[in-house]
Amino acid sequence: FVDRTDSLNFDYTHEEDRYIDFNRQKLMPFQAGDRGPALATGDWNGDGQTDIFLGGSKFKKSQLLIQNDTGFEVVETPSINKDSITEIVSATMHDFNNDQSSDLFVATGGADFFGQSQPLLDALITRENDSVIIRKIPGLYDNASVVRASDIDNDNDLDLFIGNHIVTNDYGNLPNSYILINEAGNFKISTENDFQGIGMITDAVFVDIDTDNDEDILIVGEWMAPKLYINSNGVFELSEAIPDNLNGLWQSVYPFDMDADGDLDFLLGNWGLNSKLVASDSNPLRMYYSDFDNNGQTETIVAYFKNGQYFPSNNFDELSSQLVHLKKKYNTYSEFAGQDVSQIFDKETLDKSKILEVHKLESGFLKNENGRFIFEPFDQYLQMSPLLDFVSFDFNNDGLEEVLAGGNYFGVTPYHGRFDSFPGALINSNGDVTLTPSLGLDLSNKSVRHLKIITFADKPHLIVVNNNDKARVFEIKK
Are 299 and 198 in a shared domain? Predict the structure, then answer.
């Protein structure tokens, strides 16, 4: 990998806004408002070359980079910049209105705005003559995490899946996600597909897993298991092909034939094993969700299993900063020491709690065995941090594709310590793992959000997009 960022004038630095989730919900296990920036690629100006859209955080403008013969040029789009109050966390570039030019669909979030706030509305951005037009999608007041496009109903236009991550100031409440049907360039929420409250979604991928000429969808998220939905004439039905006890803190999914047997497997980025969190099939990590102090505001208590009981992962100071009534129950730290969840909270309070669980923290892949799946963990080197994205390519020119994995995540409390040591890894076709600094690519101390292969001057290049940092472009030397 050879860094070409400066020579190609690839000028984009993501700047995260200063919103801190923990200021509102002190007991959240990690942040939700730092999942950008968005990345979308396509031929925006119709010259046959790949252009780049990067979505900005709140009050930070998005950026459109147009490819030319010498590199990339920043093109100002005043209508998009004017809408910079929105935080664009996911985007996709396609011709949605069949006018032979590329459009953008942007999904917004940021975990800051409440209720029916206009900045939460997702939008279709089209090019009409010399103008760029933004059309907000009515009713989609959600914190999105992912948007994916597919011709779901086989009518020769692209429909959308919108996956939503959280409900603002109500972490643990499962948001609604949606299928949007494209009707002549106008998107309508599908009434035939119910994705209400399916989970705290982080990623999704369309793929024709049953080879019936329409695309199915695999969805992943936090405190949930991967969910495979089979497309049957435009209506999605939940498959039972994925085993039980696969709830995780899943961050990413990528289709790839990992075992080279001719069918698609699914790579899954999870939280990893380099943290204080512990989970297993028999003793899952738990998150209790309820209004523990009866003040009209919900809280979450993350708890781990030890010696037959569940204990809160937060210390007394952290718990009592949100649940002030505990200061009356416990006068000293020694009184609180060793107290499990059932001793801290009464039975009535716990009985009304919703419990979300995690069985797996390892990243790995779903191995396709004749249409049913088994989970295989990755090598230990791939468990150092959350894995946020994958990309496949024949990096070493051996005629077989390898997979590049990127990760790290900083939005955790000091107690947990930020994940910053994963340098990136190449999963070779024989299953061996090569850490990428030896190949000229060091992703440590970067919180990677996207990895993408594009072509420039007939040569393959890797785009690396980081949160709150400069995006970079690397030529892939063979």
Answer: no
